C-alpha cells in the first residue's frame, strides 16, 4: 500500500515505523504537522491508501479522518486516554503498560482499536522507555493494524464506553517536595519528565526544568542541596539520600531566546562555586546505585566499555574522557572489547547544544569534531584484539561512524541508523570517507549520504552496515551481547580475525594513510565551521531550540 505518515516531528518512532513499513514493501511518505496542525490539502495531495500517525500532538481534522482511515498510535493500553499517558505510567510506577493503535474519530483517543501490544516497564526514564519498549510495542501493533486493514475483512469494534480521559500532567503534579518525598518518588518524577517537559524547580537562584534522575546511594546532605558534581551532572540531596540530575533547561524569561537542555554543570556555571566534583571510578564496585556516563567491566576474556550520554550527544569533554577510558580498556588482557551502553542510544555524534551555548560555537565545533576523530582513530588502529560495537539503540551521523570503526557491528532489531550529515549542513568527518565505503562500497555510501534517510537494522544488515542483528528486547540485549562476545573470545575465530584485520589495516595504510582521510574531511568541516554564513549555524540553532528550519538544507552530495 501507499501509506502516509503524519507526525508532529520526524522523531525516533516515526523513523522506525517508516523503516519497518518500507521493509515490508509499502511505499511511505511523510507529512509533518506545522504550527497550524495537519493541513487537509497536504494529506489529500498524497492520495494515500492509509494514514498512520506514529507521534502526533494535535488532532487530525475531521476533513481528513472522514475521507481516509487514520490510525493513531497511542502510548497507553486499551482504554487509556489522555495526552500524558506515558508520563503518568512512569511517575505512578506502573509495572505493565502498552500501546494501542486507534482509528481517529472526533473524540480524542476514543476510536475503535485496530491493534494493541503490551510490555513490562523497566525502571528507566520516559525517553529511554519510549525509544525501546514503547517503540517495539508500537511497531508490533502498527504492523498488525496495517495487515488487518490491508486484508479488507477486519472490522474493529468501537469501545462500549470510552475510558476516562486523564488530563495533561501539569507541573503542579510533577513538583518535587525535597523535604518530604523519598528518593524513589523523586526519581520517578524526574524520569517521567526526563526529556520533555522536565520538572520545574528553583535551584541556586533561578527556575530550571530538571531533566533526568538517577539514585545515589552514598552522598547525602540537606534536602534540595547540591552536594556534588560529576562529569556535567549535579547531585541533589533528598530526605533519605540523593539523586543525580544530568541536564537542565532554564525557564525562559520574557525577552530571552528559546531555551534548550544543557549538561547541568555548564548550565549552572558560577552558581556551583564551592560544590565538589566527585568522580566515579572507571570500574565501579558491583551493586552500587549511582550515576556515571562511562564505565568499564570485565568478564573472562571480554572487556565491556559502557557509555551512555543523554540524547546520544558527545561533547568535547565526553569524547576525551571516552578516549581515555578506551586507552585503559585496550591496556587490559582481553581478547574481545565491546563498545556501547546496555540500552538506548549508542551515539549521535557531536554535541550540538554544548556547541550552541559556547562563547565561540565555531571553535567549539572544531574542538569537538577533532576529539571525535581522535577517538575513532584509536578504534581504527587497534589491531591486537577484536573490537565490537554493540548498538543497543539508535545511532546517527558521527555516532554511526564511531560504530563502523570497530571490526564487527552488532545491533538490536529495533535500532535505527542515520549514517549521514547533510541535514545539519555538514560534510562529515570521523573517517567516514574510509569506513563507510569500506563497508558498503562507494556507490552505496554516496546514496546513503545523498538521500539522508533512516536505515532499519534489517536494511543495515542487508547493506553490510552491521554484521549481526539480535532479535531480543531492550532488557535482554546486554546479556545476549555478553554471551555472544564470550563465545567469540573462546573460539578459534579470534586469532584469524586479529591477523586479518592487522594485515588489512597495513594494506589500507599503504594505499592511503588514515591521516589523509582525516585531513581532507577536516578541511571541508573547517570551512563550514568558520563560515558564519554556512547553513550549519542556523540549522544547529533551530535543531537545539526545536524551531522550524530557517534556511534550506544543502543538497550537495559529498565527494568520496
Outline the fold blueprint:
Elements: E1 2-7, H1 12-23, E2 27-32, H2 40-45, E3 50-53, H3 62-65, E4 70-74, H4 85-91, E5 96-103, E6 113-120, H5 126-151, H6 171-174, H7 183-192, E7 199-203, E8 206-211, E9 214-216, E10 226-230, E11 233-237, E12 242-245, E13 247-250, E14 262-263, H8 264-268, E15 294-299, E16 302-307, H9 316-329, E17 336-339, H10 352-357, H11 361-380, E18 386-391, E19 395-396, H12 398-404, E20 408-412, E21 416-418, H13 432-440, H14 442-451, E22 455-456, H15 457-463, E23 468-470, H16 474-489, H17 493-511, H18 514-529, H19 535-545
Parallel strand pairs: 1-2, 1-3, 3-4, 16-17, 17-18, 18-20, 19-21, 20-23
Antiparallel strand pairs: 4-5, 5-6, 7-8, 8-13, 9-12, 10-11, 11-12, 13-14, 15-16, 21-22
Strand content: 15-25%
Assign the structural class, choosing from mainly alpha, mainly beta, alpha/beta, alpha+beta, or little secondary structure: alpha/beta
Q: Gap between N and C termini, in Å?
A: 36 Å
Mean pLDDT equals: 96
Number of strands: 23
Strand order of the largest sheet: 2-1-3-4-5-6
Share of helix, binned: 25-40%
User: Strand count, sense and closure of the main sheet?
Assistant: 6 strands, mixed
What is the count of DSSP helices, taking H or I runs of 4+ residues?
19
Overall, the morphology is globular
Over all CA atoms, what is the radius of gyration? 24 Å
Unreliable sequence segments? none
Amino acid at each position: 500500500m501507499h501509506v502516509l505518515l503524519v507526525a508532529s516531528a520526524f522523531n525516533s518512532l516515526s523513523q522506525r515505523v517508516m523503516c519497518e513499513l518500507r521493509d515490508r514493501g509499502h511505499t511511505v511518505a511523510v507529512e509533518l504537522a506545522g504550527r497550524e496542525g495537519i493541513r487537509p490539502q497536504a494529506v489529500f495531495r498524497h492520495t494515500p491508501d492509509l494514514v498512520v500517525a506514529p507521534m502526533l500532538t494535535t488532532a487530525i481534522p475531521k476533513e481528513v479522518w472522514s475521507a481516509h482511515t487514520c490510525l493513531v498510535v497511542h502510548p497507553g493500553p486499551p482504554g487509556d486516554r489522555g495526552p500524558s499517558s506515558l508520563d503518568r505510567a512512569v511517575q505512578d510506577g506502573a509495572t505493565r503498560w502498552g500501546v494501542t493503535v486507534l482509528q481517529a474519530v472526533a473524540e480524542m483517543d476514543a476510536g475503535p482499536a485496530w491493534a494493541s501490544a503490551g510490555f513490562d516497564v523497566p525502571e528507566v526514564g520516559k525517553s529511554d522507555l519510549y525509544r525501546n519498549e514503547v517503540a517495539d510495542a508500537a511497531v508490533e501493533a502498527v504492523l498488525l493494524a496495517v495487515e488487518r486493514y490491508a486484508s479488507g475483512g477486519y472490522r474493529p469494534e468501537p469501545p462500549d464506553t470510552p475510558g476516562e480521559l486523564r488530563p495533561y500532567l501539569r507541573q503542579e503534579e510533577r513538583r518535587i517536595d525535597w523535604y518530604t518525598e523519598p528518593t524513589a518518588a523523586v526519581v520517578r518524577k524526574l524520569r517521567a519528565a526526563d526529556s520533555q517537559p522536565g520538572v520545574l524547580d528553583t535551584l541556586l537562584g533561578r527556575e530550571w526544568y530538571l531533566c533526568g534522575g538517577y539514585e545515589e546511594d552514598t552522598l547525602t546532605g540537606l534536602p534540595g542541596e547540591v552536594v556534588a558534581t560529576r562529569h556535567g551532572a549535579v547531585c541533589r540531596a533528598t530526605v533519605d539520600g540523593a539523586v543525580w540530575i544530568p541536564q537542565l533547561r532554564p525557564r525562559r524569561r520574557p525577552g530571552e531566546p528559546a531555551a534548550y537542555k544543557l549538561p547541568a554543570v555548564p548550565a549552572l556555571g558560577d552558581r556551583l562555586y564551592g560544590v565538589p566534583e566527585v568522580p566515579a571510578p572507571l570500574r565501579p564496585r558491583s551493586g552500587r546505585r549511582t550515576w556515571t556516563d562511562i564505565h568499564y567491566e570485565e568478564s573472562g576474556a571480554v572487556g565491556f566499555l559502557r557509555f551512555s550520554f543523554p540524547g546520544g550527544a558527545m561533547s568535547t569533554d565526553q569524547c576525551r574522557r571516552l578516549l581515555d577510558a578506551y586507552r585503559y580498556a585496550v591496556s587490559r588482557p582481553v581478547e574481545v572489547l565491546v563498545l556501547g551502553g546496555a540500552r538506548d542510544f549508542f551515539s549521535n555524534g557531536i554535541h550540538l547544544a554544548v556547541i550552541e551555548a559556547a562563547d565561540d560555537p565555531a571553535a567549539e565545533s572544531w574542538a569537538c569534531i577533532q576529539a571525535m576523530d581522535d577517538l575513532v582513530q584509536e578504534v581504527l588502529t587497534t589491531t591486537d584484539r577484536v573490537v565490537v560495537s554493540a548498538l543497543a539503540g539508535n545511532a546517527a551521523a558521527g555516532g554511526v561512524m564511531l560504530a563502523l570503526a570497530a571490526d564487527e557491528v552488532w545491533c538490536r532489531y529495533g535500532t535505527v541508523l542515520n549514517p549521514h550529515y547533510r541535514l545539519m549542513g555538514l560534510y562529515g568527518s570521523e573517517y567516514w570517507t574510509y569506513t563507510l565505503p569500506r563497508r558498503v562500497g562507494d556507490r552505496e555510501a554516496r546514496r546513503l549520504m545523498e538521500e539522508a534517510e533512516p536505515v532499519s537494522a534489517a536494511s543495515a544488515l542487508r547493506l553490510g552496515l552491521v554484521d549481526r542483528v539480535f532479535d531480543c528486547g531492550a532488557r535482554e540485549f546486554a546479556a545476549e551481547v555478553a554471551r555472544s562476545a564470550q563465545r567469540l573470545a573462546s573460539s578459534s575465530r579470534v586469532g584469524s580475525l586479529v591477523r586479518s584485520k592487522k594485515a588489512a589495516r597495513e594494506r589500507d595504510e599503504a594505499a592511503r594513510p588514515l591521516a589523509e582521510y582525516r585531513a581532507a574531511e577536516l578541511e571541508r568541516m573547517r570551512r563550514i565551521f568558520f563560515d558564519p554564513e554556512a547553513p550549519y549555524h542556523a540549522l544547529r540553532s533551530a535543531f537545539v531550540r526545536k524551531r522550524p528550519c530557517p534556511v534550506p538544507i544543502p543538497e550537495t552530495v559529498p565527494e568520496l
